[in-house]
Amino acid sequence: MKKVMQKNDMVRLQIEDIGVGGEGIGKIDGYTLFVKDTVIGDVIEAKVIKAKKSYGYAKLINILTPSEYRVKPRCPYARQCGGCQIQEMSYEKQLAFKEAKVRGNLTRIGEVPEELLDRVMDPIIGMEQPFEYRNKAQFPIRADREGNPAAGFYAGRTHSMIPNTDCALGVPVNKQILEEILSFMREYRIPAYDEEKHAGLIRHVLIRYGFKTKEIMVCLVINGNCLPHSKALAERLTEIRGMESITVNINKEKTNVIMGPQIRPIWGQTYITDYIGDIKYQISPLSFYQVNPVQTEKLYGLALDYAGLTGQETVWDMYCGIGTISLFLAQKAKQVYGVEIVPQAIEDARNNAKLNGISNAEFYAGKAEEVLPGYYREYEKKHPGERVNADVIVVDPPRKGCDEILLRTMADMRPDRIVYVSCDSATLARDVKFLRKNGYELERARAVDQFPQTVSVETVCLLSNRKLKPDTYIK
Ligand code: SAH
After folding, report:
1. Pocket test residue of 289, 298, 299, 341 for ligand 1, highest count of atoms within 8 A of CB
2. Which of 126, 249, 311, 339 has its CA 20 to 30 A from that of 147?
3. Nearest CA to 50 among 42, 41, 59?
């Protein structure tokens, strides 16, 4: 019989895997325990703190034999901070873990045969420098214990702040900017925001950095209409090379949402410019933009490669956001149609197309699972029996994956290729299973590490219409 643990039991176990929240996973006689602050390979002693029927949670008491993959974390706050989860595991092992996770989901949930995966899966694309990769940082500003303004981060899943201006995932200039702001606040007695009292002025500092252009944007989120002595602040910040944009964002709500709707300029432009590949973007404090530009370029390069474009194709880019993938593809396609649910993002996408002189990309605001089926029905009515205009369909859905109505429509439209970009390999696997049952075969798959030191992993899959190459697939 399976052993059932009880609260306060002391146990010894080996960590074998990492869970969705970064916690280590080990088993004792089939009973699963989740233990924070451990890495794959650790042999540990732990105390059960919560016991359910088939699984429980335990607290690390002692590392008996440290894993060979254990490394000293670069950031002294790696354990407390909610930002990184697996900084104590070597980067090589992080990559192996992520690849195994994608593979595991594709076989277990997606029911993709092992021998097919052996053939189609390429090695994960990691980073050469898996730190300092984020082009965007948002630091809360609060009073520290002595009442002085401090910048930092929230301890995992809480709102108590730990002062730290030196996040290992952000660019080094963040520290310099934050320290200028904090010294300005001290000198001019500008109060930090107090969440409980909903008082004080400066709530957050948003910093964006263009990796290609080296342009810097600073936006102070304030609980008020204006920032006193803003000229003095601008004088200090503009000493920093690359400063292009200093703004305030007004957020007077009692809310966890960081940004309010309104931006006011203090100095310079209200946006910075950056590039992904050859495509130029104007990024304002409120716009969505991929946070790891180095890996994004690789991710989209892979999507482009899988799309196999020759210049003749009509491509649909579902869940297109600000049109990043669409514009990347438009350079090699005849026509691209992008679909996205957020109207503001569609506006940005259209502006980005204009900014780059791209005229073969059109964007529609709406739900992917409504816009594409609607287009298909109309097309069928007007051109009965003809194949619909869609050679390649790209999807890049949020974590929950694609709506089944969308998958059904894609299968009915019969594009030559479907390129699936995914941030959650479990829902990817579910959707791959659907597509494999409905006329498509998995032809290539590759994980990309967009967020080193965290558990998340992106995956790109190419699925091809079985009719095109009927003999090459495993039945
Ligand atoms: N491809 C884009 C963004 C992908 S993120 C890029 O690379 O930048 C997923 C996007 O899907 C988000 O922009 C989100 O707003 C959008 N979205 C969420 N649900 C949607 C739906 N049902 N239909 C269309 N878009 C949706």
Report:
1. 341
2. 249
3. 59
